[in-house]
Specification:
83% of the residues lie in helices and 0% in strands. The protein has helices at 2-20, 29-54, 62-87, 95-125, 129-153, 156-174, 179-206. Keywords: Membrane, Transmembrane, Transmembrane helix.
Length: 210
């Protein structure tokens, strides 16, 4: 009888693990989390590069400016293609994992819509400042998504990431006329709230399940 009860408890614990997902593993899986962290690294370097240019510390020839502007996106698109191919074969286990994955996917779609909105406004009004509101809004949207993740996972560090995105986004919106501070906050924010959490979740996902 005791053996049967132990077996039932083990089965229930296993089913609960499947239903709830893996704690700090996030729900993106190792490939998705790695892509998220890589995006933070690539665009963080790009943004701080622009900051260095604004401050006059970094002076680059036209080819260098072209690479700084487009190389991070090219690398990211290659990585994203690889991750899409890999994730097609990876089943989403657990309701929480599916919800987290859906939240980040929805953010990506919203970002595409925001690009069209702010790019059109900047072109129509011949004012680049309209475009500068786009990253600030994206930061705020990321903060909202991370609050959803925190609500599902109940990890304090996820709440801090959410707050960091929100504070950085608001600060960027208020500093549109200060490109140096705007770029500095954006670059550091991408490292702190995108690269670090992404690679942390990737490391957690790669750990063998207990």
């Amino acid at each position: 009888m005791n053996d049967e009860l132990k077996t039932v408890r083990d089965d229930l614990a296993f089913l609960r693990t499947i239903a709830e997902g893996g704690g700090e593993r996030g729900g993106l899986g190792a490939p998705g989390a790695g892509l998220y962290g890589s995006a933070g690294l690539l665009y963080g370097v790009q943004t701080l590069g622009h900051f260095a240019q604004v401050k006059g510390v970094l002076v680059m020839p036209p080819l260098g400016n072209l690479l700084l502007g487009w190389l991070p996106t090219l690398i990211f698109l290659i990585l994203m293609t690889v991750v899409i191919v890999i994730d097609r074969k990876r089943p989403q286990v657990g309701a929480a994992n599916r919800a987290v994955s859906a939240a980040f996917s929805a953010t990506g779609l919203a970002n595409l819509a925001l690009i069209v909105i702010f790019a059109a406004a900047a072109v129509r009004n011949h004012d680049f400042k309209y475009w500068l509101f786009h990253p600030a809004v994206v930061f705020v949207v990321q903060g909202a998504v991370w609050f959803v993740v925190f609500s599902l996972r109940k990890r304090a560090w996820m709440a801090l990431v959410s707050a960091g995105w929100l504070v950085a986004g608001v600060a960027m919106g208020l500093l549109i006329n200060r490109p140096d501070l705007y770029l500095l906050i954006a670059g550091l924010g991408l490292f702190a709230f995108m690269m670090v959490p992404g690679f942390h979740m990737m490391r957690q996902a790669l750990r063998p399940a207990p």
